[in-house]
Amino acid sequence: MFTFGDYAFYILFNLLLTTLMFPSTLKRRKSTPILSRRISASGILLFAAFVLYVIASSFRMIEPGIGGSDAWAYKAMFYEAEGSSLLAFIGRHTAFEPGFSLFSWTFYHIVPDYAFALFVWHSLSFILVYRFLTRFATRAHKMTSFLFVYAVNILLFEQYNTLRMSIAISVCLNALILFADGRRVWAVTLVILASSVHVSAAVILSVFLVYSIMENNSGMTSGKLIATVAASLVCSLMLIRVFLFLLSAIGKGVYDDGGAVSLGVYLPLFVLLILGCSRIRNIEEFKYGTILISALPVCLGLVPLQMSYSIVYRMTLYFLPVAYAFILMLIDAYGANQGCARKNAPSLELGYLMALILGNSYLLYRIISLFVEGAQHFGHFVLAF
Q: What is the pLDDT of residues 173-191, one digit of tens each?
């Protein structure tokens, strides 16, 4: 049984991890390659966070009842690579998602110890999550930025159980950055690669489509955003039966179990979209503003699909870190509109205060709900060197 001590461990572990990483997320400059930076106090703290996380993640005990139910299944799958050809191994395990099977088989034949595979996966995720964090954490709003880093870091602990999906999310977050940077072939390639690990990652291709349409049609307007939400809802309705066919085709027909609606995801994102519409010009001035706000209509468009198939909730998880980053951008946008974003003592204008209060409240809500609802799936934590 998951105890209060288990909850406390994950909450405090993430607090320690966030505290160690936070100074570096504020000091990082995109023009300076990570490997060429001089050693600094923040760099040492970041390295300590990396070592602490990777050691804890790679050498934790994973057994029935310990370490998460999905985690045990992935470990058992890893050792099935012994004496198996690659094609046979892929055929037995998620043939429609061959990437994860390919990596698992390869890792086993390099070092036949599951700790090695976990080391690679968790190292990769840590680097990708950190890269995403450095694009949005800001000195102007340190408290909100700290909550932002803490909330996004939960993804690193969700990987303790939902390994494939968490890897796919961390890859896709960086694909969004690459797409906005103009490196579109690389971005699409990363999403395809992520989809081979967890097929749900394909939803990010829709964000690329929305972003491209907006960019090629004289930029964004509030009307275009609302129209995009409507179009997403219509497409979602049209895809309901197609989605059922796809579930059956990939052997996931078991998830045809009725629907649900994640109000805790959709309602706050709708509010963020409305707030963003009123500051659309300010948001477009930020380098990643357009790609972030392009993602919100896509997520809202998933409502009809999730009402039919509850498994669609997994697709919404790709948009939560995006929403967290958008909150920081939204606060800056409201502050900049009043000429107060870069002043030491910004005027407490109503819209700015509303963005600040709602943004921080939502981050706190997501942190609490993710731990209350999700931490029990991380499993009991036991080190096993």
A: 999 999 999 999 999 999 9
Q: Are 365 and 348 in contact (CB under 8 A)?
A: no
Other CB atoms within 10 A of residue 300 CB: 22
221: three-class secondary structure by DSSP: coil
Backbone angles phi, psi at 60, to 5 degrees: -80, 150
State the DSSP string of 84-103: --HHHHHHHS-TTSHHHHHH
Report the alpha-carbon distance of residue 353 to residue 359 in Å, rounded.
10
Token pair listed for 38: 């001089």
Alpha-carbon distance of 199 to 98, in angstroms, equals 10
Confidence of residue 133 (pLDDT cuts 50, 70, 90): very high
Which tokens sit at 40? 């600094």
The pTM assigned to this predicted structure is 0.90
Cβ atoms < 10 Å from Cβ of 376: 17
Tokens for 299, please give them.
Answer: 């997520």
Nearest-10 crossing angle of helices 142-158, 114-134: 160
Alpha-carbon dihedral angle through residues 79, 84, 89, 93, given to the nearest 10 degrees: -40
Q: Identify the burial level of 315 via C-beta atoms within 10 angstroms of its C-beta, where 0-12 means exposed, 13-18 middle and 19 or more buried.
A: buried
Nearest to 334 by CA among 314, 357, 355: 355
d(CA 371, CA 154): 8
